[in-house]
Amino acid sequence: MTDRYDTSNQIEDQYEPDSDGTVLRNLLGITSPEEMEIHETADLWIVQGKLFEEISVDQSFTVNDICQMHKQWLGKIYTWAGVPRGVNLSKGGFDFAVAQKIPTLLDEFPMCNHGNTPLSHFDSHDDIAHALAEVHVELMLIHPFREGNGRLGRMLATLMALQAGLPQLEFSEMIGFRREEYFASVRAGLDRNYQPMKKMFSDVIERSVWLWEES
Questions:
Q1: What number of other Cβ atoms are within 10 A of residue 31's Cβ?
Q2: pLDDT at position 72, please?
Q3: For residue range 124-134, what is the model confidence (pLDDT) as tens digits?
Q4: In the prediction, which pLDDT does 5 show?
Q5: DSSP letters of 117-150?
Q6: Which residues of the chain have pLDDT under 50?
């Protein structure tokens, strides 16, 4: 059994028989983690590219949009894509939201109801970073899906940033050498402290703009 996630024994917790507990049951019969990573990444880039063209600057993202994005991305791989998880998850000793509370938490998700979308009406990078941080932290704490929450969250943040006229966000530092800082920033959100994640998104924005200007 992989230590990536610990879950209860439900349909989303089924693994491919020949994967030694490393690959979730999938529609493609993939048993290799490396092959699954290739498929998931390729489909993510395809869907993200389509969404870049489809999303308008004044579109307010909703929870339903998030579910549809997840289904568009992973629907060819997992039967439960786009459906809030029914299993409890933990990672590295940290427990995400209990599965039975997810519907209520999604109803309270600080997106439209906090004015965090669309970002086209935000004037400063500081305000944009705060909105991205609040939405991202709360989404990660809820961890609404069985798989792909982090990548989905980064795609959503990029789409929101594009509405504000920013270039595609560059997350290599956040998911690389600042990974532990990132996890600590998510945990800080348990006390509704979004400042650590806001600092991270401020750095992401600054680096993304610099790379775009240099290209």
A1: 16
A2: 98
A3: 999 999 999 99
A4: 44
A5: S-GGG--SHHHHHHHHHHHHHHHHHH--SSS-HH
A6: 1-9
The structure tokens 């308008």 sit at: 56
Confidence (pLDDT) at 98: 96
CA distances from 59 to 3, 62, 63, 150, 152 (A): 38, 9, 13, 22, 18
Instruction: State which CATH number among 2.40.50.100, 1.10.1740.10, 1.10.3290.10, 3.40.50.150 fits the domain covering 11-214.
Output: 1.10.3290.10
Residue spans of alpha helices (H) in the chain: 33-54, 63-74, 102-107, 125-142, 149-163, 179-188, 195-214
Enumerate the domain spans of the chain. Answer: 11-214
Per-residue confidence (pLDDT) for residue 1, from 0 to 100:
37
